[in-house]
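Dear all,

This email documents one entry for the complex benchmark we are building for the journal club exercise. For each entry we list the sequence lines for every component of the assembly. Then comes the predicted three-dimensional structure of the complex as a token string, followed by one or two observations. Please use this as the template for your own entries, and keep the labels exactly as they appear.
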Amino acid sequence: MNTLGWEQLLFVCAVTVILAPLLGRYLAATFSPGCTSGGYGGVVPPAGTGSGKAPGDRIFLPVERAVYRVLRVDPENSWTWQAYAVAVLVFGLASTVLLYAILRLQGVLPLNPEHAPGMSPNLSFNTAISFITGTNWQAYEGETQASYLADMAGLVVAQFTAAAVGLAVALAVVRGIAGHSRRIGNFWADFTRSLVRVFIPLSILGALVLVSQGAVENFSGFRTASTLTGGTQQIPGGPVASMEVIKLLGTNGGSMYGVGGAHPFENPTGFTNIFDLLLVIVLPFAIVFMFGRLIGRPRQALVIVAVMAAIWLGHTTIAMQAELHGNHLLSPGVSQVASATNPGGNMEGKEMRFGPSGSALMTVGTMGTTAGATDSALDSYAPVGGTASFVAILLGEISPGGEGGGLYGILVLALLSVFVAGLMVGRTPEFLGKKIRAPQMKLVIAYVLTIPVVVLVFGSMSAVLSAGTKSILNPGMHGLTEITYAYASVAQNNGSAFAGLSANTPWYDITLGVTMLIGRFAPIVLALAIAGSLAGARVHARTRATLDTGGVTFAAFLVGVIVIVGGLIYFPMLILGPVGERIVG
Amino acid sequence: MRRQFITSAVMLVAVTLALGFGYPLVVTGISQLFFNHQANGSLIYTHGKLTGSALLGQSFSSAKGDPLPQYFQPRPSAAGSGYDGASSGASNLGPSNPVLLNQVSERMTAYRHFNDLPADAPVPVDAVTASGSGLDPDISVQNALDQAPRVARARRLPVTQVVALVNKYTTKSQWGFLSEPVVNVLELNLALEGAR
């Protein structure tokens, strides 16, 4: 890799290492007031009124109380996992219906300077599910097919709620896995607190940073410029920065403009490029640090953070290296070697200001989260760079994962690892002092298998049905990658695309919509069920026979399980797609 | 269950008002107040007329679509028919796609011909590849330097003066490592118009 790439990578790591623990501490104090010192008993539901003090209470508490009054919710009332899951599902259903209606009706609603017509039923179905599930797969054209009202009141709201739901579920799962009580919290309290104390304040600050660098934030619609050569150019507008920031902070990924983070009005400078990446990855790491504080075992959090970081470094550096290396199939007369006056590398689909390494750092650096925010065209990545991004998704979005989803995703894999390790050495598997038995393992296996089954079934169908194959842009093995990437990406609620695929067809709108629904809500319900089955289970004291889950051995073992589970299931698909393209090409 | 539906509906009304309207209006208000130039798209006016945005590339071609030699030329663009601000886009062509390989090879020949370069001159990769947005405002320094003699000839200016302008309009790497050093094509061409 070149010097610039290393410097950017080191900078990102340094900022994350400093900020994530601090933010984790804030989150712990916010979601478990008065119990920051922890211990297993420390995990209590967040109190709306009460017991302990959390940072910023003076500003936030009155807002929260007003919300609870309007909702007529008692935040102190903690629920069983079933009640929690029902609330998540009902809220998801209600939000999807509302968003569907807004998208269908945007043509007759106000704030529509470009006169975008209402979306078709299948496109509205796909888009509504896409944003409610935090996937942000965009089968529509951002500039022309969505009104400002649909962006603001529909899509941005969904981006906030998807993030808050993810964090709320993670909190409930932590309480179940580590807590003493059979009750795992109050969804409305967790949801409200996430929005009021985390996502809204950080979004306002982040949006202003983006605007100061050149991201646009206005309501002017298109302005027409007369260019130097006597032609005209349409200059787009919109409340872009306010959407951009929650797109990243909430690991959503959906932009106002079609090309997302490649657009100079969304991501104007090298600074915003790195800032965007940090907005995506710092919070998921911070949530793990919060977990460590809530359970009173910071070492356990460090182990998980190390595993996430190792996988993140793997796919990110491989992609940076591959893109910097360039495309060996281009004519030899094209100079792709980096020099002082030319960044070189594989520049098809990339912006000059980011160059090959900065583009890969930002794009593939977000692929291990559910954001899938890109600043360059993945479809044009070199096979190795594209594979790195693909693998980050296939490993289950745990490097460092989505808002909340990263934590509960890796906790489920940790349970699996404990079980496998227990079988190998002949001990009863335990995690955080609780015994892992058959009921939990059945749920864990269901969690691990759901997404691959959906991806492989729909992916294979699309590869043989003409409804699937006629949407392919690039021929041969690359075409198969376009299809399988689409299903894997939406199933993991990532939402990035090998965008050559023409995805706005009834077949893809519907099947991808269904895939997103399953990919979001099946893991949530299963994770809550696992947490519920462990909630209130007896906590056993540590003995010499207890398998240590807070050390290097367990970290290495966890990486192994993640790679084997994620990798082996999809291995044939990767061979037929990008690996084959690299070997044959 | 019914209770949760009602609570969900009330919550949706609340978040739609607060986050769908309140939040973007607050951010827009503060942005317009403190970062007016940036928030409106870093617009460039010449003689009171809107010429473009410092952040968006535009084409410098004749009405027929041929590149004009007196202007520095931007990168190839996949946005609409080229630098169309209403439809940002990349080519999305895969690295092994024959369409891409042919395009690149044709652009390479055309670049050498247009700039009067020898048949084996290395061509900067950014000059023959389309950007991610189709609106990339920048080219590499090497690309600008390769075009400078042609621009100088077409404008009857000394090459040294054009190269000096290229150096003047080279944006250094932000903080020394956050971005690549690049040349903003619109700003450079505007400066050329002033130099005449």
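Observations: The first helix of chain A runs from residue 3 to 31. Residues 3-584 of chain A form one domain.
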